[in-house]
Design brief:
The protein is α+β, with helices and mostly antiparallel strands. Among the domains are: 162 residues, Four Helix Bundle (Hemerythrin (Met), subunit A) (Up-down Bundle), CATH 1.20.120; 118 residues; 107 residues, no CATH class. 60% of the residues lie in helices and 11% in strands.
Amino acid sequence: MADLGYTCLLMALLCAVWGVLSSWLGHQMRHSELVRSGENAALAVAALLGLSSLSLIAAFLADDFSLLYVAQNSNATQPAVYKVAALWGGQAGSLLLWVFILSVYAAIVVTQNRRRHRDLMPGVTGTLLAVSSFFLFMLQFVSNPFEPLPRAAAEGTGLNPLLQNPFMAIHPPSLYLGYVGVSVPFAFAMAALLAGRLDNEWITTTRRWSLFAWFFLGIGILLGGYWAYVELGWGGYWAWDPVENASLMPWLTMTAFVHSVMIQEKKGMLKVWNLLLIIMTFCLSIFGTFITRSGVISSVHSFTKSSLGPWFAAFWVIVVLASVLLLVVRLPKLRTENTIESLLSRESAFLFNNILFIAIAFTVFWGTVYPILSEAIQGVKVSVGPPWFNQWIVPLGLSLIFVTGVGPLIAWRRASGQNLMRNFRGPIVFGLLTGLVCFALGVRHLRALTSFVLCAFVLATIAQELWRGTRARMKSAALGFLEGLTSLILRNKRRYGGYLVHVGMVMIFVGITGSSAFQQEVTTHIKKGESFSIGPYDLLFADTASSHDAHKDVLSATLEVSRNGRHVDTLRPEKFYYRDSDQPTTEVDIHGLFSWPPNLGDDLYTILVDNDPHGGGYTFKAYLNPLIAWIWLGGFVVIIGTHVAVLPEWSRVPLSRQRPAMEAPGVVS
């Protein structure tokens, strides 16, 4: 199986290189058969990498410790799910997953466009296969997952204990689906520049691809945050770790892109800006892959220092220079069709939205690379921690919430005073009333109070838009409220799906605000029968238990939880002791969203820190995280909203009882 996997990698590299050459030659010579050959090469690469990936998985499942990669990331007692997940648990396997997903995307694009966008497809295929060629070169000559050991190991080292969590099976693939998905709109953008087709074709063709990549990047970030929350035993979910930042930066620029392209589609503006955004997003996805695998940064997520770093740095520089040069060459053809007429307009709101996203992305980028630059130039290691990031990101984030509320309500081209008064009076009043209620309830944290006011303002703007649109549908088509609301959403799924995404993001902001501003922490050393308190909760240390399986030993503590004298839950925080590692892991237990009944107000987060076998005492740590459940609920709402936004538009809405009249002006854009 190892020989088969390695041979498939070599053949995939040859096919990818041929695909790049034939696509380029076919475009230059106007030779359709060469172009088709390049597309067939993309299909062959996907099939070959599928076989190679299956070969490596088979080696893991068969405990083939004659392969260095298998011996480093698995052992005989490791559960099967983690043997499969070990494919992306190390450096070489994660690169294989990266290029395999890219090859599948390329095959889908080729299949979808057999008879469409024929002038763009040589550039699209060539770009995707050029990126694939780089990764395949690395797998072939720098980091080979099928490298044999001189002598087969009797037993493997095993996957890192921190990675032996169910989220290992879903978080990295989700993140990779987003990281790699950025390549498709980037490839279409490069093809449009190469072919001189700089209208909206590449934008409309890749709209769902862009949302797909943005969606999975966001879901991957949320899954990673929840994984860190339940696995690392520190009471948090985001630490501004360099690798966390590496996933956030392309998500921020892609978010700016999916907003900005609407201005190009509607007004013919921001053409250069949109190309810059997608170039920036792809380069940041490559940059994230680089800092994770080069060893230039210190992170719990990153791999050890390796020879991959210089190759990735060179590839990144080539991509940046080539794409920017191509954009500069085509600048004369990228003239805008309209200009922004007023700062008080929806066009300006979209632009301010973009500027804030880029400002946040740049701040995260600078905070991530500054320690690297400092060490390289001055030879001094410095650290940029959460306080620095929060100092700059929080004001920018609050400004972004405000613009999110303003954008949907302000008029296109130029807003009049009457328009501003009519649209913003209700949301502003609701936001201020929310602030007064929070203040009366004891909220004195200025940034938290500001965040709650702005979140209420945004929710009110969305509710107002939904009500106005629904009322117009009810009048024009003689519908009831629910039918009118459903009809409104189905007639413009992109807009109202986007509103639902905004609701989810507001919920996430509320959760971040509450959990970061009002978190409480208690550490105690007690014996069985004793108790401790945090906030409104009393926790009684009732008992301990031990268990074991072929892979690990488990120590579990039982905590009986009461709130205001009433028993509400039984929590069992644990310690796992893996036999193939001297690194125990902390398994927390939480009374919160996933308890029964669910607790939406706060999370009671408990950790078994240590035990004294001689004295009989145990050390516990507990956190109280207010409103943190709204982060995960907000993620669920974002999922629903994204699915609504990407549904195909229907020409007719079957819910109407009569032929629908035209929408009221300004209700549905």
